[in-house]
Amino acid sequence: MAGEMVATFHATRAWAAPETKARQSVVIRGLSKWFGSEQVLDDVNFSIGEGESLVLLGPSGSGKSTTLRLIAGLETPDSGEISLRGKRIEHLRARDRNIGVIFQNYALFPRMTVADNIGFGLRIRKWGREKRGEVVNRLLDLIGLRDQRDKFPSQISGGQQQRVAIARALAYEPDLLLFDESFSALDPQTRTGLRREIRALLRKLRIPALFITHDQEEAMEMGDQIAILNRGRLEQLGAPDEVYNDPQTEFVATFLGAANVVEGNWGDGFIALDCEQCLRAPRPAPNTAPQASMERIKMIFRPEDVTLGAPTGLVETPHHLGRGEIIDISFTGATESLTIKLLPRGYTAQSPNSVCDGASDKSCNLMIKAVRTKWEAKRLRLTAGSAVSVGLRSYKILRG
Length: 400
Description:
Layout: H1 2-7, E1 24-35, E2 38-49, E3 53-57, H2 64-72, E4 79-84, E5 87-88, E6 99-102, H3 114-124, H4 129-143, H5 158-170, E7 176-180, H6 188-205, E8 209-213, H7 216-222, E9 225-230, E10 233-238, H8 240-245, H9 250-255, E11 260-267, E12 270-273, E13 278-280, E14 295-301, E15 306-309, E16 319-331, E17 335-342, E18 367-373, H10 374-379, E19 387-392, E20 396-399
Helix pairs in contact: 3-4, 3-5, 4-5
């Protein structure tokens, strides 16, 4: 469907602009908002390039919807700037900002046909009937619903209603589209297909878009950038792979996908985890100050970064954690999820070190999560109670 949607649209103006380096269409600087004594946004900054999509991701109450409402003109910021195509708009009324908003419930007029819903914004802007009809027909072709033009919203599916809502927002050629949890009411299969269509459409039309979602998979798929909010503050902003693979805070690591967070001490070229596992730490960068003897750290790694091998040998990995015991296995189809209890005796074969020597046999409650593909599971069959050698492909250290 995505190919059809793009192929049938022959736009004029900037919509058909050739591919160039994206210029910044939307710039948010120092955006802050209070509701009474509660600060819901605290100095938020980001930008969206022409044709790019930014996804605001965060838990309930993090400030996502407030950010969208401030940009749309439905709320007034207490401080900060909102610029659209180089023009400050935070003082403008919502109807003067040329921004399209697609809400979760679509907000279609139930007694208007599909065609009349799409053309509604043009009609209240006093466009002539003929010109309005041309735009409506073009947009109906764009969303693949020309044969549904005379139906009412109750007579078409949820995915089709969403397309109509997007076409209505596109009718007056907005400078920015805002999507407020716009796919959450759809069934999973429809939601997956529709968001891919919308992503391809936005890239073709080169319209910047901001999405609000609780769905992490949706955020990774839709966004050129992901902005993670937590209690009104921007925790991290970056490309999806950057935010996932290089989280800058524990909140980002644990909110965006599953993550193991293990505390320990870093010093003398080794990391000693709290339950006496030990692995060689990365060498410090050249010309950096020498480390203190021991530094308190958190080590973060994804379940898919864990590698498992036979208990009698070393697993093929750059970083060895030692031995563990399988506590639980959950089969999910394409992958297998495991809970592993690390045994308390440290691994010291690579290089003896006082940090790792002399580990006791006391009980250890250090649990980690691992994920294996079905092919890895076939190569090494494991059950609850199996002993394994545990290593890591990669990890990240958070200091302080």
